[in-house]
Amino acid sequence: MARSIVVVGAGPRGAGVLERIAASAEEFGVGPGAELDVHLVDPYPPGAGRIWRHEQSSLLWMNSMAADVTMFTDDSVQIDGPIVPGPSLYTWAVDLREGRMPGEDVPPGEVGDELRALGPATFPTRRLQSYYLDWVLRHVEATLPPGVRAHRHRTRAVGLTDGTPQRVRLATGEELDTDALVLASGHLDADPTADEQDLAAFAAAHGLTYFPPEQTTDSELDRIPAGETVIARGMGLAFVDLVVLLFEGRGGTFVEDPAADPSTPGSLRYVPSGREPVLHVGSGRGVPYHAKTEYALRGPRPPLPRFLGPDEVKEFIREGSVDLRRDVWPLMAKEVGWGYYHELFHGHLDRVAGTWDAFAAAYAEVDWYSAERAELVAARVPDPDDHLDFERIDRPLRDVCVDDPEALQRVLRDYVTDDLRRHVDDRYTAELGAFVALLSVFAQVMELAGADALTPASRARDLSWWQNLFSSLASGPPGPRLRQLLALSRAGFVRFLGAGLLVEADEDAGVFRARSDSLDGVGVEARTFVEARLPAPSVSRSADPMLAALHAEGQLDEEVLDLGGECPAKSCGSAVRSADAAVAHGDGAVVLHHTGLVRVRPSDFRLVDDDGEAHPTRFAIGPHTNVRIPGAFTRPNTNALSFRANDALARAVLAVVAPAAGRLTA
Fold first, then answer.
1. Which residue ranges does the record assign to the FAD-dependent urate hydroxylase HpyO/Asp monooxygenase CreE-like FAD/NAD(P)-binding domain (predicted)?
2. Tens digit of pLDDT for each residue in 510-537?
């Protein structure tokens, strides 16, 4: 009799879990006579899933270059399971167009044309990525080891019946018996928060239009008429999608601007279609995410980790009660500075004084927040423009408050132009050195967070701050998108509102009203308001029927952090103030912060119930859990945390399922 695993979610995360199960299956005794069935359940296209499905606008791009996307492990990945190499997106495209994939054809139409022209530094469309992910899953299925079988179910899992075995109910009415359940659904929709319900009700009462947080590709943007004044809150990747769909998606075009300043990188002019709205946008930080770099390191790759590595993380874990900003951030910043200055000294000798060895020895001896470090940098790096300034990076508009909206437009355009220059001109390759170090820091911080070493207050406040800062630095759009944003700003179709954006429902005037910390006494009113961001995670408000049912039955818990008196509600950071529930008890000395994330045991990703017990045969992995794993695919040769997590989970599941399968054949 075969054993069974049900993986809910057949996008790149689910496919990655299947690949890791297959890689280790033989080691755990799976084979002829001890078979294993793996069921992939997802209403969206297998392999690609919802985010990367083919059925979306051909204008939407990935924010990674083709050579920086892989679904396969390599020798850099430190895991217990076997390394099973495979092609990156770029290598796959080259092999396909050069006929090195028997039985596979170049896709038809626009995607095929794109594939034939694809270079390693090209930002592919999401539709091309869907073909790669589809091939990855088919390849994994075609190379499954003896005894492992994969089954696809193009539907939704809606419930779970306890028992031996457990039984997963599907929307089709079918039921699947399973010995282990893996929830790998990725970003989940959630019902609106109380504030979002109030905004929707206000819009309905006054004949306005409100778009709650959601995947931009799923929004009914046709409801926004031409010429409409629109307030948008959020300047991350969802905002970039919004801009693409509202302007290029409505027939507008971008052309090279021959009259532009030649020092401005890639200046464009926007040619309107006549169907555009006017978009007023702001956010907490008030600026778009940083552009992706478009150059290579001039010097050797910086040796990492240097100041924050496994040994330091183990020591923090041993000590416990760690405050990320107070205890770890100085090492995080110093590590990123190490990558930055390593590249500056190796790639730009004309802009430094002395040798790298001398600088590195002195740098190692000083604290990040010290006069000695500032003096060292000033002495060895003469141009202040070459100094790494995290405070400026984190809050670039902190000193900006003007009473003239046109002045703010100029400030923001100058900021975006400078950011573009730093990410396309190889004079600034030190920025890429910092980025390489940032990836190393991210992996170490996630190890620390996964070990529950942070204080609850720091976990609630600082992890959100850090992930937002990391995303703004590392997960930004391709440079051409910011060039287009500048063109739209110059044409008057995008208006910047700046930092500290606040949007309110004005009952007296019957409109939405926006103001910010960057505009003194100036606001804007609109009849359309778009939340340009994904919904915050929430187990208690989950729109996923299985997740909601498990939570209602107490079999799946939402992470709740007891902040004690460390972070009273009136002074908590924005991450706490905006939580689904921050409940003060008694005199306010105890605050419970609901993160909205599925609670799992960090060591093996087992679901934790509301009694704090880890379930022996139920697992979850991905951004909807309190072990905050980044994207399901990643850069090659980076010892990717995502692949390490997939491997650990797969082996934990096999340890539950496979030994029983082996005993059945005895």
1. 6-187
2. 999 999 999 999 999 999 999 999 998 8
> Any idea what the Cα angle at residue 135 is, between residues 134 and 141, rounded to 5°?
95
d(CA 94, CA 118): 8
Is the Cβ–Cβ distance between 325 and 462 less than 8 Å?
Answer: yes
CB-based contact 496:279 (threshold 8 Å) = no
User: Would you say 19 and 77 are in contact if contact means Cβ atoms under 8 Å apart?
Assistant: no
Joined together, the tokens standing for residue 16 give 């990655």
At 199-229, the pLDDT tens digits run 999 999 999 999 999 999 999 999 999 999 9
Q: What's the per-residue H, E or C state across 97-145?
A: HCCCCCCCCCCCHHHHHHHHHCCCCCCCEHHHHHHHHHHHHHHHHHCCC
C-alpha closest to that of 558 among 541, 570, 573, 583: 541
Q: For residue 384, give the amino acid letter.
A: P
Spatial distance between the Cα atoms of 599 and 608, rounded to a whole number of angstroms: 6
Q: Where are the domains of the chain?
A: 3-189+599-664, 194-289+477-531, 310-474, 558-595
Angle among Cα 566, 571, 576 to the nearest 5 degrees reads 80
Cα distance between residue 324 and residue 433, in whole Å: 23
**CA torsion, points 151, 157, 160, 166, in degrees to nearest 10?**
0
The CATH architecture of the domain made up of 194-289+477-531 is: 3-Layer(bba) Sandwich (3.50)
Beta-strand ranges (E) seen in 566-613 are: 582-585, 590-598, 600-601, 606-608
